[in-house]
Design a protein that fits this description.
Blueprint lengths: L1 H15 L4 H20 L1 H5 L2 H6 L3 E10 L5 E12 L5 E7 L5 H17 L6 E6 L8 H15 L8 E4 L6 H15 L19 H19 L8 E5 L3 H12 L3 E6 L3 E4 L6 H10 L5 H6 L4 E4 L11 E4 L8 H9 L4 E3 L8 H10 L2 E3 L1 H4 L2 H15 L5 H25 L6 H20 L2
Helix pairs in contact: 1-2, 2-5, 2-17, 5-17, 6-7, 8-9, 8-15, 8-16, 9-10, 12-13, 15-16, 16-17
The protein binds NADPH dihydro-nicotinamide-adenine-dinucleotide phosphate.
């Protein structure tokens, strides 16, 4: 009965939204875990909770005209998916990347709904983005683009309605331009964005939060296996916001990060990546990771980013993008002795890769649990904005760490309660879903 219910909802969704593979993949993964929940809670099916939860409450698609430095006019497409507001204002980042389309933004918004539920904070789920490619654009071009983006988006967001943040291609610079333009055209100064600069309402610790949180989560998985990060060899894909701070925390816990990547390739440094050099190249100079190997002679650069998973390691932290780690890569990791994978990125492992990790019974922390530190600290930024107060780094970091410990415990305990001990995919999906579903029941239709 419950399996039929889940299958019916998935089939309808695929018929209604053909050609959205990432969205189907994310829904399938969550719904795979939920059959036992519907066995136990018949009222969810009667109330049509599943049909309602897979359908975004609102999707806004708009054009973004802008002029480049040479005077040429361009038009990009903007998307904001306001997925589910049961638990609070829609909350989720904005992505600037040429691959962005409705399938990708919907998969991210769907995942975000359950992730935000797991944080224990009152946050609904949403996500946004555009197919604009910021690579190689001047500061002025980025500013004009961000202003044009916000000229439409401002109508749909508000501190109590929908609170965006950064994601791939959107960091402090872009958020500054978008928040500044919002403030100008709305004539209000409130916490409508998170990830803001520290001088205008940002939270100390937000920049580090997703990467640090991922390592805190992984550390809990390791503790359950009577080990930790000390002297472990770690692979981290990506070299953006999440990857850099995952590396920083892993190193501070005594690990050696031996490889990192960008979309062009990866660097391998047996003695451990020099994070100071990498940060300067990536955060300040916005250069390619290949430059790292030119500066640090002990490092070797290899073109093509997927080869990183063939390097022997103890722990892998995929922190770049969706579907970056496939079944073959997962098999190579397991064969080479990897004991833990924690996802800093959203859905970086393909379904085949997830199956390999679960079958091998290595510690596996899915993104919606392991990377929830970013949105959690965004929630803390919203609290500070509402109070018009700022907490110290230590206060924010202590709260973040406790939230990650709680998320891990919730996922682990829920997995055991539903007879799949150790399966944090099931644990995170079920726990995240149950809270949203119960609140939707409380509201009626
Ligand atoms: P950044 O833009 O700062 O960095 C992204 C990194 O991933 C870059 O090194 C980039 O390389 C690489 N990358 C992007 N696309 C690809 C691709 N198609 N193939 C290989 N590498 C790629 O983004 P973030 O660090 O903020 O985000 C990384 C991941 O973490 C995303 O999945 C995001 O959704 C997720 N996440 C981010 C949060 C945050 O707080 N920022 C919160 C929770 C999840 P290149 O420069 O060459 O493109």
């Amino acid at each position: 009965m419950s399996i039929q219910y889940v299958t019916r909802v998935v089939d309808t969704l695929k018929r209604r939204y053909p050609g959205e593979p990432e969205f189907h993949q994310a829904v399938n993964e969550v719904l795979d875990s939920l059959t036992p929940v519907f066995e136990k809670n018949k009222e969810f099916e009667e109330a049509g909770i599943l049909e309602r939860i897979v359908e975004p409450e609102r999707q806004i698609i708009f054009s973004i005209p802008w002029v480049d430095d040479a005077g040429k006019v361009h038009v990009n497409r903007g998307i904001r998916v306001q997925y589910n507001s049961a638990l609070g204002p829609y909350k989720g980042g904005i992505r600037f990347h040429p691959s962005v389309n409705t399938s990708i933004i919907k998969f991210l918004g769907f995942e975000q709904t359950f992730k935000n539920s797991l944080t224990g904070l009152m946050l609904g789920g949403g996500k946004g983005g555009t197919d604009f490619d910021p690579k190689g654009r001047s500061d002025n071009e980025i500013m004009r683009f961000c202003q044009s983006f916000m000229t439409e988006l401002y109508r749909h967001i508000d501190a109590d309605t929908d609170v965006p943040a950064g994601d791939i291609g959107v960091g402090a610079r872009e958020i500054g331009y978008m928040f500044g333009h919002y403030k100008r055209i709305r004539n209000v100064f409130h916490g409508v964005f998170t990830g803001k600069g520290l001088l205008y309402g940002g939270s100390i610790g937000r920049k580090e939060a997703t990467g640090f949180g991922c390592v805190y989560f992984c550390n809990e998985m390791l503790k359950d296996r009577q080990t930790g990060f000390e002297n472990k060899k770690v692979l981290i894909s990506g070299s953006g916001n999440v990857a850099i701070y995952a590396a920083e925390k892993a190193i501070s816990f005594g690990a050696k990060v031996v490889a990192m990547s960008d979309s062009g390739g990866y660097v391998y440094d047996e003695g451990g990546i020099n994070l100071e050099v990498l940060k300067r190249l990536k955060e300040l100079e916005r250069k390619r990771i290949s430059e790292y190997a030119k500066e640090v002679k002990s490092a070797k650069y290899t073109e093509g980013c997927s080869g990183i998973w063939s390097i022997p390691c103890d722990i892998a932290l995929p922190c770049a993008t969706q579907n970056e780690l496939d079944g073959n890569a997962a098999q190579a990791l397991v064969k080479n002795g990897c004991i833990a994978v924690a996802e800093g990125a959203n859905m970086p492992s393909t379904p085949e890769a997830v199956k390999v990790f679960l079958d091998a019974k290595i510690a596996y922390g899915p993104g919606k649990a392991a990377n929830a530190g970013g949105v959690s600290t965004s929630g803390l930024e919203m609290s500070q904005n509402s109070m018009r107060l700022s907490w110290t780094f230590d206060e924010v970091d202590a709260k973040l760490r406790q939230i990650m410990i709680n998320i891990h415990a919730t996922a682990r305990n829920t997995a055991a309660e539903y007879n799949t001990p150790g399966n944090l995919v099931n644990g995170a999906n079920i726990a995240g879903f149950l809270k949203v579903a119960r609140v939707m029941m409380a509201y009626g239709l």
